[in-house]
Specification:
globular; about 15% helix; about 200 residues; disordered C terminus; eight-stranded antiparallel beta barrel
Length: about 200
């Protein structure tokens, strides 16, 4: 009985998570011929937003580009992250490593990073909240560290059983967030974010 109740609660919790699910590609794709020169050219041709640019990810020793991305099946996702260079030689330049969606808060974003490898492609996107700094020079994120605890009070009987059942989310201690540091556009690389320059 205890296992059945725990299974029901887990299904309900999983179902609640599905309501807000965004349709993401199950596996990453690779854009052939993508490198830093191509990334810079594409960014300079667009009306760059503060989130767009070339970033360095020190935790993975990786350089990546964040650019706008439009897809009819996922209209809320506005950006994708593309690998430019990495110490991991199995990952090809141009590999999409994740996606970003804007939120109601200007500097907060929903971000998905592929977290597993399937031969030469990436899969298993992991969702977290990313925060863009005020000067748009860093994008930090802290993947969620949730545990679900189920507590059942078996002293109660039906129909009041579910009054004795509670789900308690438990958050681990706060960890220092990881993140990206913007390397282009930056000071010395021209006007930031295509702002109008007055002569």
């Amino acid at each position: 009985m205890k296992r059945k109740i725990a299974a029901i609660v887990m299904l309900v919790v999983a179902g609640m998570g599905c309501w807000a699910r965004v349709e993401l590609p199950e596996q990453s794709v690779v854009l052939p011929g993508y490198d830093e020169e191509v990334a810079r050219a594409r960014l300079l041709e667009s009306d760059m937003q503060p989130l767009e640019g070339i970033w360095y990810y020190p935790n993975e020793d990786m350089t990546l580009a964040i650019e706008r991305w439009e897809r009819e099946s996922s209209p809320k996702i506005g950006y994708r992250m593309l690998l430019i260079a990495s110490d991991d030689l199995e990952l090809l330049p141009g590999t999409v490593i994740g996606y970003i969606e804007a939120s109601a808060v200007d500097n907060k974003y929903r971000m998905w990073l592929y977290s597993q490898r399937n031969k030469v492609t990436l899969c298993g996107p992991l969702e977290c909240v990313a925060t863009l700094s005020n000067d748009a020079s860093s994008l930090t994120f802290d993947p969620p560290h949730w545990e679900v605890k189920v507590r059942v009070n078996f002293a109660r009987f039906l129909p009041s059983l579910f009054r004795g059942l509670s789900v308690i989310p438990h958050v681990e201690q706060e960890r220092l967030p990881v993140g990206f540091k913007k390397i282009f556009p930056a000071d010395g690389n021209g006007s930031k974010f295509n702002k109008v320059r007055y002569l």
